Amino acid sequence: MVSQATAFAPASVGNVGVGFDLLGHAIDGPGDTVTARRVEQPGVRITAINGLVRDLPLDSERNTAGRAVIALLQDQQPGFGVELVIDKGIPLSSGLGGSAASAVAALVATNALLPEPLTHEALYPFALAGEAIASGAVHGDNVGPQLLGGLVLATTERLVRIPVPEALLAVVVHPDWQVETRRARESLVEPFDIATIVGQNSHLAQFLAGCYSGDIELIQAGLVDVLVEPRRAHLIPAFAEVKQAALAHGALGSSISGAGPSVFGWFRDPGQASQAAHAMQQAFATAGLEARSWTSPVNAPGARLVDVD
Amino acid sequence: MVSQATAFAPASVGNVGVGFDLLGHAIDGPGDTVTARRVEQPGVRITAINGLVRDLPLDSERNTAGRAVIALLQDQQPGFGVELVIDKGIPLSSGLGGSAASAVAALVATNALLPEPLTHEALYPFALAGEAIASGAVHGDNVGPQLLGGLVLATTERLVRIPVPEALLAVVVHPDWQVETRRARESLVEPFDIATIVGQNSHLAQFLAGCYSGDIELIQAGLVDVLVEPRRAHLIPAFAEVKQAALAHGALGSSISGAGPSVFGWFRDPGQASQAAHAMQQAFATAGLEARSWTSPVNAPGARLVDVD
Predict the structure, then answer these.
(1) Residue A160: which of B189, B204, B206 has the nearest Cβ?
(2) Does position B136 have pLDDT exceeding 80, yes or no?
(3) Does B191 contact A188 at a Cβ distance shorter than 8 Å?
(4) Cα separations (Å) of B6 from B9, B302, B308?
C-alpha cells in the first residue's frame, strides 16, 4: 500500500496559436512537483508551497492542486485524506500552465495512493475542476498535454492526442513580465467577424491536417493565429520583434504561449532552434526584459511519478 | 489532338456543418455536364445551356463556367478558343454547389483539349475564379471536392483531401424552396463571441481528428455546427424537424448543405440512411414542401471526363 507519492508535471504551451483554449503541448523543461501523503483525517490539506512561487493560497479549496485532489477524492471515496507539499518550478502568470501543472502533479501523486489508480485520461475532469479555480474558466489546453504529453486537443469532454512529426522542436521564451490571465481574457470580449473566424478555422484545419499527415508545409501554413494574437500582442513588450526573431531563424510559426507573456516557436532544425532562442531573448532584452528560454521536443513527456513509498 | 470533350462534375455538400467556406464533400448523384469544343476563334463562348436551369447568363464573363475557362485559357495560352454547352443537372440555389459544378465540369472538359492537361488540383485557382462570379466571394468548399472527390479542405491557397472511413454515407435532401446565397451570407454580418468560436473550433478539431483517425465517435462529437446553423436555420422551412428526423434515424450529425435549403446527414448504416432519407422528406412535406433525396458515400468520386473526341 502506497503511503506517499511524488509526481512531476511539465509546463506546457497553451493554445498553440491556432487552438485557443483547445490545443496545448507539453514542454520538456520546467515543471511543478507535488508530494501527496496519505493521512487518516479525511479531506485535503496543503502543508507547504516551496519553489519559485510561494504566495499561493494554502486553503485547499482555493488552490488549484487542492481543489483538483478534493474533486478526485470526492469521486473515488478512498476512505483516507491527503496532505500535499507543492514545489513550484513554473513561474506564476508566465503562460506556461503553472497553475495547471500543480493540479496535474497533485492528481498524479494522489492517484498513486488509490487502491486502483485511474488512467491519466480519467484524471482529466478533476484537473479541469482544479484549473477552473485559477482561470475562472474551464479549459483543458494546459492540463490536457500535461496529463498525456505531446500535443493534445482538450475539449470539455475529452482529450485527444494529436500526432506530430517526431523531429519537431518548440522554443519557449519567458520574459520577466506578467500578463494577468483575466486581463488577457478581457481583450477577447469584443466579438469577431466571420472573415476572421474563417481565416482562423482555415489555419486550424491545415495545422491539424498537417500534424496527422506529417506534412510540415501544412503545419507551417496553419500555425498562424489571426484570432487571438492580434488582440493580445500589445500586452507583451516587444512581441512583434520576438516573433520576428523566431521566424527569421526558421520557425514554422510563432505566437503567444497561453495568455503570455511567454512566446513560442516550432522548428524542424535544432541549430535554427538554438539560434532562434538566443535571438528571441535578445529581442526581449531590447525592451529591457530579461528572458529565459527552453528548447523541447513538441512530443515532450507528460506528468509522471518520480517517487513512491 | 482532342477536338471536343465532355465532363461531368458532381454536386457537393458545402461547409459540412463545421467547416464554413472550407470543407465540402462530393455527392454520387446529380451533377452538371459540360462539353467543350475547340474552335479557331480565341476566347470562350457559351452556345447553349440545357437541363434543369436555363436562365443563366450566356455571356461567358458573367457565367461561372465561362469565367473559369477564360481564366484557364488566359493562363495556358493554348492558341485556340472554346465553345461550351452546359447541361445543368443541379437545381439553382439548392445548396448543392450547382454554380461550382458548371465551372468544374467546364474546366475538366477544356483541360482535355490542352496539349498538356493539368492535374485537377492545378485547376483549382481557375475554378475559384469562376465560383467568385456566382457567390461574390472566393471560397472553394464546393469546387474543391468536385475537383478531387471525397471530403476536401479548401483553403484560399490549396486543396487537402481529408480521409474518411469508407463506409460513411451522406443523405442529402433538397426541398422545393430557394435560399438566396446573398441573403444567407447577410445572416452572418453580426459578429460572433469568443465562446461560440471556441465551441465551433472544438467541433471542427474533433471532426478532423475523427476523420484522420477513423474514430466515428469523434466525428459524431464534432459534426455539430454552433456557428452558422443557428443564424440560418430560420431561412429553411421545417429545418429543425428535418434535422431531428435525421438524428432520430442514427445520423452522426445533420446540418445545412452550403447556404441551404438542402439538408444533409452522415450515417454509418445503409438501412438507417434509407429510413432517414424518407423521414427527412416527410418532415419537409409537413411544411408543404416537396423534396428529393440522394444517398451517397461521403467518399464520392469527383469530376471526370465522360466523352472525348
Answers:
(1) B206
(2) no
(3) no
(4) 10, 14, 6
Residue closest to A92 by CA, chosen among A177, A35, A188: A177
Cell matching residue A90:
513554473
Query: Could you tell me the CA-to-CA distances from B113 to A205, A241, B76, B110, B217 in Å, in that order?
Result: 35, 51, 11, 5, 45
Q: What percent of chain A has pLDDT over 70?
A: 99
Calculate how close chain B gets to A223, using CA atoms only, in Å. 14
Question: Do residues B88 and B284 lie in contact, with contact meaning Cβ atoms separated by under 8 Å?
Answer: no
Domains of chain A (ranges plus CATH)?
4-162 (3.30.230.10), 169-297 (3.30.70.890)
Interface subset of A 206-225, CB within 8 angstroms of B: 206, 208-209, 212-213, 218, 221
Q: What's chain B's Rg over C-alpha atoms?
A: 19
Q: A205, B22: Cβ pair inside 8 Å?
A: yes
For A71-119, what is each residue's pLDDT tens digit? 999 999 999 999 999 999 999 889 999 999 999 999 999 999 999 999 9
Nearest CA in chain A to B15: A198
Dist CA B253 CA B246 (whole Å): 8
Question: Look-up: residue for cell 491536417?
Answer: A209
**Buried/exposed A124-148: b ≥16 CB within 10 Å, e otherwise:** bbbbbbbbbbbbeeebbbbbbbbbb
The pTM assigned to this predicted structure is 0.96
The reply to whether omega before B261 is within 30° of 0 (cis) is yes
CA distance B152 to B303: 13
Higher-confidence position of A78 and A55: A78
Cα A126 from Cα B282, distance rounded (Å): 45
The answer to whether the Cβ–Cβ distance between A191 and B189 falls below 8 Å is: no
Count the Cβ atoms, other than its own, within 10 Å of residue B240. Answer: 11
Is B115 part of the contact surface with chain A (CB cutoff 8 Å)?
A: no
Is the ipTM, as predicted for this complex, more than 0.90? yes
